[in-house]
Predict the structure.
Amino acid sequence: MKLCVFGAMLLSLFLHVDTASAKTEILVYTAVEPNYLNLYKKGFESAYPDISISWVRDSTGVITARLLAEKDAPKADAVFGLAACSLLLLQKEGMLLPYKPEGYDKLSPRMRDNSEEPVWVAMNAWTSGMAINKPEMKKLGLPHPKSWADLADPRYKGLIAMPDPASSGTGYMNLAAWMQVMGEEKGWDYADALMANVKMLSHSGSKPGTMAAQGEIAIGIGSPAFMKPLLKRHAPIEIVFMEDGLGWEAEATAIIKTTDKADAARKLMDWTCSEAVGKIAADFSGLAGRPEFTTSEAKKAEELMIDNDLQWVAENRERLLKEWRNRYAR
Amino acid sequence: MGRPSPRGVLVQLLLLFLLFPALIYPLYMLLVRSVSDDEGNFVGAANFLEYLHSPGLSSSFVHSLTISITVTALVVPAAFLLAYGLTHTRFSGRRICSLLVLLPLFVPSLLPAIGFVYLFGSQGIARFLLGGQELYGPLGIVLGNAVFTLPHATLLLLTSLRSVDSRLYMAAACLGAGPWRKFTSVTLPNARYGIINASFVVFTLSITDFGVPKVLGGDYSVLSTEIFSQVIGQQNLTMGALISLVLMAPTVLTLTLDTWARRAHARLSVQNARPVSNMEQKSSPLFGFVCWGILLLPMSSIAVVVIASFTAFWPYDMTPVLDNYFFEEAGYSLSSLGTSAAMALCAAVFGTAFLYTGAYLVERAQIPAPLKRLYRLLLLLPLSLPGLVLGLAYIFAFNSGPFSFLYDSFAILVINTIVHFSTVAHLTFVSALAKVDDNYEKAGRSMGVPAWKTALRVVVQQCRLPLADVFFYLFINAMTTVSSMAFLCGGRHTVAAISIVNMYDSGYLGSAAAMSTLVLAVTFGAGLLHVLFKKIVSAESFE
């Protein structure tokens, strides 16, 4: 008898039976930092009590790979807080449903798809930046670099870690920025000079920043949005925005074409343009989709943001990465 | 042999039927994917040619081989010294030593790797020992792999050195052989198969591992991280599938060689060997020193992680705190440990039941030989399938098509784990069943007891120890595996080992250390239960 009960318990565990509810449940894929997920879920569900969100959360690369792997039979109803470039990849595959949400006009033009039939709107943006370990730099007796140009100075040789453009979205964002600002010929010259200083490439975009925080490396290139939490935990780092132009990327929402819950998914698009999201997003990188919520501190970064042609960035990805591999693969 | 038992045939067919979606279909999908373009058209060897011409891709193959050969060359001699010390000599703390050897088996492979960051990283407390060498890169991967493969090699060599017949040493002594002569003409020849076997196992484990290069690889690319970067970083699933096949080539080769060596060895092995007894073991402080010296590396790399999990922000704020254990602060949750434990329990229960039934039918039931051969062959396959490859194959097989209801389910994690570790479990049952007298079944038949009743009542009773071995083997491996979960997790279910990788990547090194410590606590608890169970069973059998 006891064995039967145990067996039934195991079986129910195995099948993971979900209890049905009257609410519309939407399955949303997201790359939002885990500590913000609950804020967003609570905010949305209190604004739309008849809809509930079920998250599938992972890094930008994993979520994008997942969506592409599932393209013949998509599981998700919507995507929330994924890099706009990734959404453009999905759009190329014809996976997204166009919708112009309420509040679309209130977003900064950089933070929305400006085509006739928009498929995405963004809640916030994140930019390039670097984390500099203060004690290590003091030990080395070097001034803190302030720009991309500084980072290519031979005196920083062997002190830099950065995300590998071939495996990290943040890494590719930087590469695309150099190419757009300097033009491709000079851009690759710059990449050569910088790579001569780089000690290590990482697979993940947040890793170089955390390595700088732990003193594993002196300078970590990444995104300040991911470095800010390290400051809260007393990491001895200074976060610096490169003076000579910041690459950037938008965290955006879109609807998957095949969903049978399009109405609920549209509500999520509407909500992305809302004040509530603006406030949460401002806490993350400071650069909100609705400009009135952008923090005064982030306004400085905003001025440094380059004119980023996301379409160009997405279209040239394969070509640029191939060249990258040919030059620097070890 | 009587006539085929219809019930046995039916059950065996059912098992084979279950293996179809769990093993054959995913592998088929992986093969198809590697010879197709992104739209799914057949392109033949085009992908492979592209692979050969991409400089970064083909170098990762050379890197992987270099690393694995180096690790094998370092670990096997070290493991031999350890095993020799533990079986042929006496020194103080030998019993503790023989338990501590197993410690790395209880943790995910990336735990000692994180330990090496604390020990030898830029802020590492023992950094001076590396003499200015860079930890991140080949050195780190070799060190990390050495630690996690050492217990596997040691266990194999312990078995083979224990089986050396002590009467051979006596005979050698009578013939006037000195210690060196005894070693070269008795110990080494008898341990030869163990050494070969251990080399294959170490090589395969280190070429397929993903946890260690993920943490310590830096930008030195190896095959397993390359698959990950192709699939996750560049969303190039086709190239991921192709590199998976490349990774399988060396493992299939070693498996073939190993099977061949096993056959050659079977002819030589001696039945009823009398192991070297306590009396004959020489007291040797030197070997004590060597054994403890070898164990220092794995032990310190694990201990430092446990210690670091209780410090605020290593190395800048060393205040002892419990903060790292509150995973919500880092945006993670303790629930992944629960998922791991539930998954491991399911894999252990269902896996043991499935594999035991299969092994019993193949070894004992009267069913047609082709069925038996097919089952045996299928269960040998998973040994040459790296976890990462199996995981990717599952993604291809289950995201659409006839089995898509399993996609992103808890069940798929369990099934993947069972299949991934099935070969060793199956072989354990096969050798255990070989030792159970088949007169039980004959007696049962002659008394008119149905065969399945005999199988359940008598044979299961006789196989309690191997059943427990397999149960705990599956449980502990399911708790610690990283590579087979890397592609399958991330949906609704995340296991502890993967959340450790994620925490490490997003900079919550303390939380990663804390979660690793919890995993160690669970697996160590399971290990204790296993020992306890063994004690009870052997006490019963003496009554």
